[in-house]
């Protein structure tokens, strides 16, 4: 038990086997660490909030804050002469358990950070992720939400989103529209191509550059495919695709070009053939 000089020459008893200097040093370490943790948290939050979402900024700043506090506490305990190996071992075991239990959460968190740093898309962008197509509705720390074309909200974990091929439909200034219109073999292919090309050239939504293309493909005894390609501004791509298809088809029909409707071959099989004499008939179940 250490004795601390008191007032009037009296001595005060210190209940721990540490000196007053060690206690003051530990308090100083805790104070400096707490101030440093607050400063780092504030600076990191301000920096990230300008470049990422608030969720990302809050999560990373808090992780750094508590990490600095933990290291500061360990340093203060070591200054007091306390064996911190037990705390480190216990902390390691708890960390491993939490890491295994929260592996999915951690992977989604890390993927979310990379998505914010890379910024492949933003809220409001039309995207296609695998079989899901729609508009990005929200990007959070663990998952992202896409409002699909049919109005259904789809939630995609950031890890799956980060690993998937994502098509962002409005990153370029223009997108290509393509039709494959089947025409009968009795039709004048050159005339059909000329009609389609004239319709495109008259449409304001169809860009002159890159130049539109119209050609015949897949010629067979049943007819051919009239391939129509043109470019439209990305923000008007869907409207141009719907509008031009109806215009081209109407002009082809008005000019006497016969369009082949889609065909599906269906094979119908008759019942089991009559068994010959002497052949065994299958036994019915039951």
From TrEMBL:
Chief site of localization: membrane
Membrane topology: Multi-pass membrane protein
GO molecular function: mechanosensitive monoatomic ion channel activity
Pfam family, one: MS_channel_3rd
Domain Mechanosensitive ion channel transmembrane helices 2/3: 63-103
Keywords linked to the UniProt accession: Cell membrane, Membrane, Transmembrane, Transmembrane helix
This protein's GO CC annotations: plasma membrane
Subcellular location: Cell membrane
Superkingdom of the source species: Archaea
All residue ranges annotated as the Mechanosensitive ion channel MscS C-terminal domain in the record: 177-259
Domain Mechanosensitive ion channel MscS residue range list: 105-166
Recorded family membership: Belongs to the MscS (TC 1.A.23) family.
Record's protein name: Small conductance mechanosensitive channel MscS
Source species of the chain: Aeropyrum pernix
């Amino acid at each position: 038990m250490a004795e601390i000089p008191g007032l009037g020459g009296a001595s005060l008893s210190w209940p721990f086997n540490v000196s007053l200097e060690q206690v003051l040093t530990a308090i100083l370490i805790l104070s400096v660490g707490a101030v440093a943790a607050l400063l780092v948290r504030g600076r990191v939050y301000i920096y990230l909030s300008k470049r990422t979402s608030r969720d990302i900024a809050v999560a990373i700043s808090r992780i750094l804050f508590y990490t600095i506090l933990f290291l500061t506490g360990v340093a203060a305990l070591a200054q007091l002469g306390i064996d911190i190996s037990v705390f480190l071992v216990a902390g390691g075991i708890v960390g491993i358990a939490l890491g295994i239990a929260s592996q999915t959460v951690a992977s989604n968190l890390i993927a979310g950070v990379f998505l914010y740093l890379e910024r492949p898309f933003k809220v409001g962008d039309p995207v296609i992720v695998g079989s899901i197509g729609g508009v990005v509705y929200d990007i959070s720390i663990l998952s992202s939400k896409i409002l699909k074309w049919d109005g259904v909200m789809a939630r995609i974990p950031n890890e799956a989103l980060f690993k998937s091929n994502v098509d962002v439909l409005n990153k370029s200034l223009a997108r290509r529209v393509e039709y494959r219109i089947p025409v009968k073999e009795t039709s004048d292919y050159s005339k059909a191509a000329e009609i389609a090309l004239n319709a495109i050239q008259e449409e304001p939504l169809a860009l002159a550059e890159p130049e539109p293309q119209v050609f015949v493909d897949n010629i067979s005894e049943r007819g051919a495919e009239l391939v129509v390609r043109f470019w439209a501004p990305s923000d008007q791509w869907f409207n141009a695709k719907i509008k031009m298809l109806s215009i081209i088809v109407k002009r082809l029909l008005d000019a006497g070009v016969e369009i082949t409707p889609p065909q599906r071959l269906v094979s119908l099989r008759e019942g089991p053939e009559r068994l010959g004499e002497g052949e065994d008939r299958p036994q019915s179940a039951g």
